[in-house]
Amino acid sequence: MHLAQVNIAEMIAPINDPVMADFVNNLDRINMLAEQSPGFVWRLKGDEGNATAITVFDNLFLIINMSVWENLDTLFDFTYKTAHVEILKRKKEWFKNMPRMHMAFWYIDKGHQPTPEEAKERLYYLQEYGQSPYAFSFKSRFSIEDLKDYKIKS
Questions:
Q1: Cβ–Cβ contacts within 10 Å for residue 115, how many?
Q2: Contact at 8 Å (CB) between 101 and 129?
Q3: Model confidence over 22-51: pLDDT tens digits?
Q4: By three-state DSSP, how is residue 137 classified?
Q5: pTM, to two decimals
Q6: Nearest-CA neighbor of 1 among 143, 115, 135, 109?
């Protein structure tokens, strides 16, 4: 199995607004870094090479990022041990504070490419029921074995 991840962010201005320029100007570099990182498998992208134009939510200021990794450790290493962390530290410059969970991880079969709708469902599940093997974050670090005995709530 592999690990899928989704994170969403609400922009403080339209993507083409000058306030968003530094974020936009770093997208290709950080996406390339992800693709070259150990454990990277796949990422969601549109015609422009990123996912900023893919609309998943009613709020057009919400952007989505999705990717698949070999495991939780490789995702953690990319997130916090590469140049990605410098962009992460600057998120308040471009994005509103999200009061609810804005990221979710879940296990998928190797070769499966998760859809934005699947990601949305996992994110909502995490917001509704909290951390579980079905949808979690770095705080919980559930394993594939944890998922085997988990009963999905409805």
A1: 12
A2: no
A3: 999 999 999 999 999 999 999 999 878 778
A4: coil
A5: 0.92
A6: 109
